[in-house]
Design brief:
Blueprint lengths: L2 H10 L4 H22 L21 H5 L6 E5 L6 H14 L4 E5 H4 L12 E5 L9 H10 L3 E4 L7 H6 L5 E10 L2 E4 L11 E2 L5 E8 L4 E5 L6 E8 L2 E6 L9 H8 L5 E6 L2 E6 L12 H7 L3 H20 L4 E5 L18 H12 L3 E6 L24 H18 L7 E2 L8 H10 L5 E2 L17 E2 L5 E2 L4 E2 L6 H13 L2 E6 L15 H18 L5 E2 L1 H13 L1 E6 L3 E7 L5 E7 L4 E5 L1 E7 L2 E6 L3 E6 L6
Parallel strand pairs: 1-2, 1-3, 3-4, 4-11, 13-14, 13-21, 13-22, 14-15, 16-17, 17-19, 20-21
Antiparallel strand pairs: 5-8, 6-7, 6-9, 9-10, 10-11, 12-25, 18-19, 23-24, 24-29, 25-28, 26-29, 27-28
Length: about 625
């Protein structure tokens, strides 16, 4: 008799064998539940991209400092709106790592315009070209000889404009402006092109023109077909005109795409990351109006989250390959005067939801000890919020340290490093304290856009001087019929190749954020956005917040110089670490084989380049260049 048969024979005679089987099943179930609730075994830590050491990542302004300017920007600050437009273009060019020299005709005079031979491109930011005087002739001669010129602001009709209009592909130009209610970028111009995007608060901002057949229209209005971006050959050179007349932050990606039309080729660093935040998650069950949940599901708030909301988010994560980043709230009390904050006693919800999120490969960060923004006495909420301010520096810092300690206790392997300000509010003094007194926090994820008040902490993508990564969130919620956010989303795909989105559990308790319409409608809008994002940018990496922070560090630090020859483009990268991502547009020639990296076709002449070496060589296919 074999050993196995002997054991089986003995077991068969054991009168309590049936009970042992039952106990074994219960032990197995308990083990699974324990792992799930404790979050001990999960895939966090398998992040595909780590953060750089703080001293290896530098702000973009430091990275580009001292580089030879390849772009000349000519402005006239005496003209209406020019200074505000210049601020937007300064940030766009900084993020594109295009070193530029400025000449303000109002301050420096037209004679301060330097020799154009050392520049690859010139960007003119002024509605009226009259201030250039005779220098306009010099500028157009330079273009005719092979230069690239862009009018970044909607031009005004004048004698000077009419004299050079044909060189910009314009047949006739009027004196009237038309309202651009929407924009339709051509499919071969931008990521997400071929679709109509509505413009918020439209006004008569676009000049009425008719173009020559030789002009190439890259974007137009969706209703009247008014050209908004076009280019034209001018001798051996090239001109580009932007006719939006809208210069807000939400349009940056459209201007970056227009700038990339200049020259034989343009390469600029991008982030390549999509992050999906769950604010105030995990947290105690939030308070709020649950009548809509009762109406639609007949459930309590807690049961709705456990049985409907969270399972639906898990399904979306599986379908769209999402790894959520949760931002933890320890309690919803309003205590702001404790140097030793009281520890949350009930940890079941944190272990359960937090553990599952981590098991899904997600990440946990911090939103607050409570839901009071980090702000001291110098912040005035007025009638906008009923938040309190912290008593002093000590209580503010203590609240963050308590939250970190609480997370370490209930989910010891989470190791959160990302801070999300409640309601995107973070005062200047509190921001400084995070950098000096809370070393655990390495990333701040607030908002990309202003809201008309001075309360939000508005960010740019990059690395700050104290080493903290700035990772603003662009869009939020279910985005149901929210045309502004869809415009912002497509713009940032083309500016930074990034998407940062957040939702909050208490959206379903607030009629202004989706509760009235209900979770089904809200989820439908979210699903629609995810479908659009996946279709528009199928190669976009879905990351956790700290992974994206690593990508932002590399994006902020790297510089790129493009050298064009008859048979190749050579991209030389400064401050290169282990990888970098670049948007590459081939305006004259078709890319072939690549050394030092990989290339992926996006649309038209637009490509995504992954650099794996500080020098990337992209061959030009034979016969593709001129």
């Amino acid at each position: 008799m074999s050993v196995v048969q002997h054991i089986r024979d003995r077991a068969g005679h054991f009168r309590w064998m049936g009970l042992l089987v039952v106990w074994a099943v219960f032990i197995a179930m308990a083990a699974v539940l324990l792992v799930e609730r404790a979050g001990v075994q999960y895939s966090a830590g398998q992040h595909k991209l780590g953060m750089l050491a703080a001293n290896d990542a530098v702000p973009a302004s430091s990275a580009i400092f001292g580089q030879k300017p390849t772009c000349l920007v000519i402005t006239d600050s005496d003209q209406t709106g020019v200074e505000d437009v210049k601020e937007q273009f300064d940030q766009i060019l900084l993020d594109m790592k295009i070193a530029h020299r400025d000449v303000d005709l109002a301050l420096d005079g037209a004679d301060a315009i330097p020799s154009l031979t050392s520049f690859d491109r010139v960007i003119v930011l002024m509605p009226s070209l009259d201030a250039l005087g005779t220098h306009l002739t010099d500028l157009m001669s330079w273009v005719n000889a092979g230069g690239s010129l862009m009018l970044g602001m909607t031009p005004e009709n004048s004698g000077y404009m009419q004299a050079v209009a044909p060189k910009f592909g314009i047949d006739t130009v009027g004196y009237e402006y038309t309202t651009a209610e929407s924009i339709v970028p051509s499919k071969d111009f931008m990521i997400g092109g071929g679709q109509r995007y509505e413009l918020s608060d439209p006004f008569k901002s676009s000049l009425l023109v008719s173009l020559r057949e030789t002009a190439h229209v890259w974007a137009k209005t969706g209703d009247t077909g008014t050209p908004l971006v076009w280019s034209s050959d001018c001798g051996s050179g090239h001109t580009v005109v932007c006719n939006f007349g809208i210069y807000s932050k939400v349009m940056r990606g459209f201007y970056a795409a227009a700038i990339s039309l200049l020259g034989d080729a343009t390469a600029y660093p991008v982030i390549n990351g999509a992050v999906f935040y769950l604010d105030d998650f995990p947290s105690p069950v939030p308070s709020g109006d649950s009548s809509y949940i009762k109406r639609d599901y007949g459930l309590s708030v807690a049961d709705f989250y456990a049985k409907v909301w969270w399972p639906d988010l898990q399904k979306l994560a599986q379908k769209y390959d999402i790894r959520y980043t949760g931002a933890m709230i320890e309690n919803y009390e309003a205590a702001v005067n404790q140097t030793e904050p009281v520890r949350q006693a009930d940890t079941a919800q944190f272990r359960y939801f937090g553990g599952m999120l981590l098991q899904m490969g997600g990440e946990l960060g911090f939103c607050g000890y409570n839901h009071q923004p980090l702000a001291l006495w110098d912040t005035d909420y007025g009638t906008l919020y009923d938040y309190k301010t912290w008593k002093n520096k000590e209580t503010l810092v203590a609240s963050l340290n308590e939250l970190i300690a609480f997370q370490d206790e209930v989910l010891p392997n989470a190791q959160g490093s990302v801070y999300v300000p409640p309601s995107n509010i973070l005062s200047a003094r509190a921001r400084k304290l995070i950098g000096t007194d809370v070393p655990r926090i390495k990333t701040i994820a607030s908002t990309y856009f202003e809201d008309g008040t001075d309360l939000p902490y508005v960010q740019e993508f990059g690395v700050s001087s104290d080493g903290i990564v700035e990772q603003p969130r662009i869009v939020s919620g279910g985005m149901v019929d929210d045309t502004y956010m869809r415009l912002a989303a497509v713009s940032e795909l083309n500016m930074h190749y990034v998407s940062t989105h957040f939702i909050n559990p208490d959206d379903m308790l607030d009629p202004d954020r989706g509760a009235k319409e209900g979770w089904k409608v809200y989820k439908g809008g979210l699903t629609d956005y995810l479908d659009w994002l996946t279709t528009s940018a199928p190669d976009l990496r879905h990351q956790t917040a700290s992974e994206c922070s690593g990508a932002i560090q590399r994006f902020s630090s790297v510089t790129v110089d493009v050298d064009t020859s008859a048979d190749a483009w050579t991209l030389s990268l400064g401050n290169f670490h282990d990888e970098a991502w670049l948007m590459f547009r081939a305006n004259n020639g078709e890319p072939g084989s690549v050394t030092g990296g990989e290339i992926t076709h996006l649309t038209g002449d637009l490509y995504l380049v992954k650099a794996t070496d500080k020098t990337v060589t992209i061959a030009r296919k034979e016969g593709s260049g001129q």
